[in-house]
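Entry type: protein chain
Record version: 2
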Amino acid sequence: MVLKLRVAQPMDAVKQPTRSLLIEDAALLLGVSRRTVYYRIRQGRLDTVRTICGSQRVLLASIEQLLRQRRQLRQAGPSDNRSQAQALQA
């Protein structure tokens, strides 16, 4: 008979839960439709996690990153490359 021992990990080694939003809440925050959120997920511009029960949630960090990119694009003004604007359009 073989016994397996579990070693307790210090508190700092325990992974903190990731902050995430429902698809609908992410759409409201971004000011787009749910369908657009799914498109952004498929494009790899929004990251998601699956819950234990199987629902998909959007990581808050990826929403913040997309909003930052949008803000930078708006601040850059019309003198920048138009293809860059199309790539970041949300």
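Comment: The longest helix spans residues 60-76.
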